[in-house]
Design a protein that fits this description.
The chain is α+β, with helices and mostly antiparallel strands. Helix content is 36%, strand content 12%.
Length: 83
């Protein structure tokens, strides 16, 4: 199955400087850590008999996928978007 993708023109892309910086490193990773109160989510999961862990992974993925830049991929040294 082929998923259509749009190649991002890096010469006009406002994030080119960030891409160049992180793609020049061996491990282009960025981590952040913060404390989040998930008490309400925990109780929701228990009330609805769903796995807290899998529910949190699902909810986090849904939120991350709302941010366009997190949906970009690198294919053959080009940045592509399939959204």
């Amino acid at each position: 199955m082929v998923i259509p993708a749009t190649v991002i023109d890096q010469n006009k892309w406002e994030r080119k400087e960030h891409f160049d910086f992180f793609s020049s490193n061996c491990l282009p990773l960025y981590d952040i850590t913060t404390q989040i109160d998930v008490t309400h989510f925990y109780h929701y999961a228990k009330r609805n008999e769903i796995s807290f862990y899998y529910g949190l992974v699902y909810a986090t993925t849904k939120i991350i996928n709302r941010i366009e830049n997190f949906r970009y991929k690198i294919c053959d040294n080009e940045v592509v978007s399939n959204s």
